[in-house]
């Protein structure tokens, strides 16, 4: 059973400190949800765990089954069992989805081991069907010209194929219509087992209707300020965050206060914000 | 009249690496130091004239040599010092489904070669060229094509000229009404290279695509220039320049789309994509559109730079090493060339050539 342990994590981007002491433990079989308003550091946490080159850890630790994650390169983290379904996945024209996933799977095998092409194609086709994607997906270029919803499904498809032990889904629900949300939710729920620890990052509770979380955390000012169960999520859904801010004596929940312009600079999350 | 003397041939030996490629191919012409040493064609090519200039029908060659060519020293030298030639004539309405493979091999001489392809009305041909040298040389290569009305020519060319070689690769094509040409030129060699392609769309609704893929490495320099000139209405030209500059090499792409006055409803497009792989490498793109008419469509786009860090991060986040991710992205450049041949040993060979250029 995998254990991801995040201790007192501080991280910055371009000299701006975004995470200010995050503590979290995710075990195989558990589903955690991190909620919180915009600009509180949720997506940064996901990027830092995966090792995005723009983010720098200034303090704290991340371990996966006792191994120091921060010492690992991005690809080593993936091979160790981490997976991040990204909010805005890159488009890579010229590289087909099938070649990409095949290479990713091959990278998990020993040097002298070869991926069975037959099994791969069967598994890929099966995943395409389950996610109700277009059958020509394997031959299309990676995320190239995909709609927002297609990209999100493609992330889940890769997760199905790569079978991580700890998966982080960063706003997998954004840009999905109700039908697509249902498909994604069902596919993720189906993967749940004691071998998989899940971390959902979301603004809204609606994804949690499909993927129930047993631990709910609220992030503000770059920290987890409140943890609880589904009851916490329900109260937020009904009342918003104001009661919590009052309770915790927080005036501005964002990491960098009024500094809205700088929020737009924060990598992938911000791209979407900037386009609004 | 176009004739030339042949320089003595050292031997008819074919290098082993090329023999491997030849063994699996049908319809092969091998020219070595000016001599046609292999002429192996299926019956599909009966009726197609394939020979050197000395043996060609001069009424036919005259149809190409009468065309005006730009005043350029390399072209004049090619005429004056010619020592190697190939003439191909595809008669009216003959449509060849099989690909003609042409190997140009240099062993001891400074090659001064000229290929002329005459496509008569409504004919079609696909060729696959392979250009190779074995010793230190200058390689002056000119390929001229005349496409009569409604004919089609598709030429894929793979150059592997070594760093012992200085190469000028000139292609001149002249298209009549509704004719179509498709050039795919791949530069895999280490030679100091100047590739210059000029396509003239003389007839209405003629179409041309020039797709060049160039890989430079070490201290190599390569200059690639493509001109498509629209001299008739409703003509379409597309220039695609793809390249990877490794180490401290220098690669230049210059694309020119020229539409003359009155040539309405013509399309001139250009697309350049370049990856600067080497820390000291340089890649320049100069797209030019010379337009003298309003009722046309034209555009160019260029993306030059290092491999996108976001793309690499995304790919690595699935477990691919940085090297693997870069390789997949670079490999995507050669897919169009591989698509031109189903020959497995050629595919392997292209992979090896790419590997050598992009390590």
Task: Tell me what you see in this structure.
The complex is a heterodimer of chains A (276) and B (359). Chain A has helices at 42-50, 74-80, 97-106, 117-130, 148-162, 178-191, 206-210, 230-239, 242-248, 260-264, 267-275, and strands at 3-13, 16-27, 31-35, 55-64, 67-68, 82-85, 92-96, 141-142, 166-170, 197-201, 215-220, 223-228. In chain A, 43% of the residues are buried. Chain A has a single domain (3-95, 167-275), classed as 3-Layer(aba) Sandwich (Rossmann fold). In chain A, the strands form three sheets. A six-stranded mixed sheet of chain A has the order 6-9-10-3-11-12, sandwiched between helices. In chain A, strands 2-1-4-5 form a four-stranded antiparallel sheet. In chain A, α5 runs parallel beside α6. Chain A is built from eleven helices and twelve strands. In chain A, α6 links the parallel β9 (166-170) and β10 (197-201). Chain A is globular. By secondary structure, chain A is α/β, with parallel strands linked by helices. In chain B, a hairpin with a 2-residue loop joins β1 (28-32) and β2 (35-40). Helix content of chain B is 18%, strand content 47%. Chain B has two domains: 16-307, no CATH class; 308-359, no CATH class. In chain B, the strands form two sheets. In chain B, strands 2-1-5-7-9-11-13-15-17-19 form a ten-stranded mixed sheet. Chain B has a nine-stranded mixed sheet with strand order 3-4-6-8-10-12-14-16-18, covered by helices on one side. Chain B has six helices and 19 strands. Chain B is of the alpha/beta class and 359 residues long. Chain B starts with 15 loop residues before the first helix and ends with a helix. The radius of gyration of chain B is 20 Å and the shape is globular. The chains are: A alpha/beta (276), B alpha/beta (359). The A-B interface holds A 50-53, 73-75, 77-79, 83-84, 86, 89-95, 99-101, 103-104, 107-108, 158, 162, 268 and B 308-311, 313-322, 324, 328-329, 331-333, 335.
């Amino acid at each position: 059973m995998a254990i991801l342990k995040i201790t007192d994590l501080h991280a910055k981007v371009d000299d701006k400190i975004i995470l200010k002491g995050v503590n979290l433990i995710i075990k195989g079989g558990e589903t955690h949800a991190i909620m919180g308003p915009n600009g509180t550091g949720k997506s940064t946490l996901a990027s830092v765990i995966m090792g995005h080159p723009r983010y720098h850890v200034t303090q704290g630790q991340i371990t996966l089954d006792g191994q120091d994650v921060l010492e690992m390169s991005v690809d080593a983290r993936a091979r160790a069992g981490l997976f991040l379904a990204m909010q805005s996945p890159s488009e890579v024209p010229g590289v087909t989805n099938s070649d990409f996933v095949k290479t990713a799977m091959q990278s998990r095998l020993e040097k002298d081991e070869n991926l069975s092409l037959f099994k791969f194609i069967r598994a890929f086709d099966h995943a395409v069907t389950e996610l109700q994607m277009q059958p020509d997906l394997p031959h299309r270029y990676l995320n190239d010209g995909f709609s927002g919803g297609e990209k999100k499904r493609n992330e889940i498809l890769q997760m199905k194929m790569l079978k991580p032990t700890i998966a982080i889904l960063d706003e997998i629900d954004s840009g999905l219509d109700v039908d697509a949300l249902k498909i994604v939710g069902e596919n993720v729920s189906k993967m749940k087992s004691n071998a998989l620890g899940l971390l959902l990052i979301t603004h809204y509770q609606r994804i949690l209707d499909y993927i129930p979380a047993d631990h709910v955390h609220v992030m503000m000012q770059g920290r987890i300020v409140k943890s609880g169960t589904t009851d916490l999520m329900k109260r937020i859904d009904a009342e918003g965050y104001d009661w919590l801010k009052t309770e915790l004596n927080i005036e501005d929940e964002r990491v960098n206060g009024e500094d809205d312009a700088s929020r737009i600079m924060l990598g992938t999350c911000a791209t979407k914000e900037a386009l609004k | 009249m176009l004739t030339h003397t042949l320089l003595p041939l050292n031997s008819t030996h074919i290098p082993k690496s090329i023999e491997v490629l030849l063994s699996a191919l049908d319809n092969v012409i091998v020219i070595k130091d000016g001599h046609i040493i292999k002429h192996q064609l299926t019956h599909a090519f009966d009726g197609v004239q394939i020979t050197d200039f000395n043996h060609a029908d001069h009424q036919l060659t005259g149809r190409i040599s009468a065309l005006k060519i730009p005043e350029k020293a390399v072209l004049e030298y090619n005429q004056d010092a010619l020592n190697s030639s190939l003439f191909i004539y595809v008669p009216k309405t003959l449509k060849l489904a099989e690909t003609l493979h042409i190997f140009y091999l240099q062993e001891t001489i400074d090659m001064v070669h000229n290929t002329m392809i005459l496509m008569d009305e409504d004919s079609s041909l696909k060729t696959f060229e392979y250009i190779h040298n074995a010793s230190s040389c200058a390689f002056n290569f000119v390929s001229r094509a005349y496409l009569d009305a409604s004919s089609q020519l598709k030429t894929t060319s793979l150059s592997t000229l070594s760093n012992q070689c200085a190469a000028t690769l000139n292609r001149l094509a002249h298209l009549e009404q509704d004719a179509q040409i498709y050039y795919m030129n791949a530069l895999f060699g280490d030679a100091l290279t100047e590739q210059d392609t000029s396509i003239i769309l003389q007839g209405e609704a003629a179409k041309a695509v020039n797709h060049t893929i160039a890989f430079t490495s070490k201290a190599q320099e390569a200059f690639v220039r493509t001109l498509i000139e629209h001299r008739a209405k409703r003509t379409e030209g597309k220039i695609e320049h793809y390249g990877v500059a490794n180490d401290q090499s220098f690669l230049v792409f210059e694309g020119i789309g020229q539409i003359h006055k009155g040539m309405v409803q013509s399309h001139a497009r250009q697309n350049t994509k370049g990856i600067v792989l080497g820390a000291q490498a340089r890649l320049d793109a100069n797209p030019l559109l010379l337009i003298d008419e309003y009722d046309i469509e034209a555009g160019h786009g260029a993306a030059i730079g290092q491999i996108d860090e976001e793309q690499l991060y995304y790919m690595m986040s699935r477990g691919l090493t940085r090297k693997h991710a870069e390789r997949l992205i670079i490999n995507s450049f050669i897919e169009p060339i591989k698509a031109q041949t189903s020959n497995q040993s050629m595919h392997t060979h292209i992979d090896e050539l790419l590997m050598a250029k992009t390590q």
